[in-house]
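User: My advisor, Dr. K., asked me to get a structural model of this assembly before our group meeting. I'm new to this, so sorry if the format is off. These are the inputs:
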Amino acid sequence: MNLPETHNRFGVLVLSVVKHDYVARGVATHPRFELTAVADDPNQPDWIHQRNHKFADEHGIAYVRDVSRAIAEHNVQVAVVSSEAERHCDLSVQAADAGLHVIQDKPMSTSLSECDRLVDAVARNNVKFLMWNRNLLPAVAQAQDVIARGEVGTPYAFHVDFYFAKDAGPPKGSRDPNDPPLDWLEALKAAHATGADGGVGKEPMGELGVEGCYPLAYIAMLSGAKVCRVFARTTALFHQVCVDNHVEDLATVSLEFENGVVGSLALGRIGAASHPDIGEIKLHILGSKGALVISEARPEVGIYYRDQPPEEFKNQRLLATDNDYLLADNFARAIDTNSQTILDAPTSRAIAATVAAALESGRTGRVVDVT
Amino acid sequence: MSDSPVRLAIVGDPSDVAIWQDVSARLRGGCILALGDSMMVALEEHHNEFDAVVIQNPLNDGQAARRAAEANKHVFISSPVAENLSAAEAVIEACRGAGVCFGVAQTFRYQPSSQTIIDRLSNGKLGDPGLLRVHRWRSPRNKPLAEWIFSDIDLATRLFGAKPTEVFALARHDVAAMPSYVQVHLGYPAGGMAIMDFSATLPIGEGYDSLSLIGSRGAAYADDHRNTHLLYGGGHPSTLISGEGHGHVCREIQTFVDAIRENKPPPVGDVECRATHQVIDAVAQSLEAGRVLSDRGGQYEPA
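Assistant: The format is fine. Below is the predicted structure of the whole assembly, which you can bring to the meeting.
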């Protein structure tokens, strides 16, 4: 019997873990990655230090209030960045400049110039970068296999529905008109308990900014093409926090690609009442010889029982946690073989540019070039 | 209201006699007395046997409809009424001039799935409509744009209760002059939006239909993917998709019969027809210009 080749392990420095901590936990599912320490910049507010500290305590590792010192004092080769979105790139650049490979939570940033700075840092330091994503979920991987086998011919249209059937504080219009606007940061901090705090930070972010990375990453992987023009409609239909902070919770985007391929996104945080599970997430792909309709959630198992908590999803995804392991494995292999990760820095930057163009289109009502 | 039943002639594509017999049996205040494939023959040989005509496959810029109107027959014409707004206007004007009822058939409004969604939306269960997503995929066919998209544009107008304020469209052409694929992106008042795609590139066989509506209080999903059964015959299983039957044909014609008997406009009459054809013309303009068109006082112009 041939045993698998033994590889070295990677020490992992978690750089801020202020929102959901699934990225760091996901990386830790792989035996080659060992969480070593948590670090953050010292001048961060108390709530950030408290969350970092809590995560470090749960994992029995140190929390260091100085990123440079943590890198110097711990034997780490990989950084996992899961801060507020506006600090993602800054922390990732610090890590890359210190020679660490970087795994980062989405979105890449709230600023394209920050994305550019990170792309440069990754290239300059010859380190690997992975944007955490859902591309290795079994249904998405199956779609990729079907396309690779030529079963739909040459794909020419990619459509993704990406709805999260979750609430986000008080519904639109449910508060007194004289109430002060809901504070974005405080609202998102409060959402931490449910894990619905992907947009936590000082800068309000709509659903397209927070979650658009996922469906655009599917399309980037499956099409291998770059988006060149977009037209988008955006609105705040559901949640008062989005209305008060002038960000969208519902969006549609028409996509035009460089190679003549077309596509679209329909995306939103549509409220818990709008779907029996986490939300409809589907891929519709048309090709020259056929078409493919994929439900991203499948395979799943339905679980229903008396006194079932209303917040418990009644259809449980199978193999979803395998995505974590496979992403970490993809990252390890990229380091081992000096190959590209499944969602590298330039592709992540292209996705961020598509989102930025879509937001501009939503504001102006015009078709916008993606730059 | 007239006591005598409205006598209908089906003209154009009367191939499925059994369906029309069933529709006739279900109609209240109306009956189907003639089936034929030629308006000329219907008018010349059966002129006194019917009061109204249901026109299937109305390709020829509404010529059959105009002829029926001139013969004082009420006109229920399958969508699209014509290839563009000006040709549709000619049909509408012919009916108005003759004083006969004008209605548009073969919309999606009366399909069971649409009826369910319209019902829930109308009684407030779904809240305000926010996002309509439609996929209509078919085998290759060389049909004008209006024939692809009329029924969904009309349904979207019904669901949002308004014409779109913005129109943007993309298309792909393979070999033929007609596009093989069209994507239509519409904006509606109060932030509403619709995105629909129409493909004619599936291999020969059944098509695929999917419609979802996201509202401010809930959502509806009418999707062949959800209504698919499995058939095992070796190798990979095949799928069977349950259709929605033909009861909607009867419901739709009933609205026309009721409109004639009660001397009122049908649910999809001249106003709705004009509105839909305006949008279709805007889609065609957007495809040509690659730009967004906005509603400016009833006319779509570049944004």
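One thing worth pointing out at the meeting: The first helix of chain B runs from residue 17 to 26.

User: Perfect, thanks a lot.
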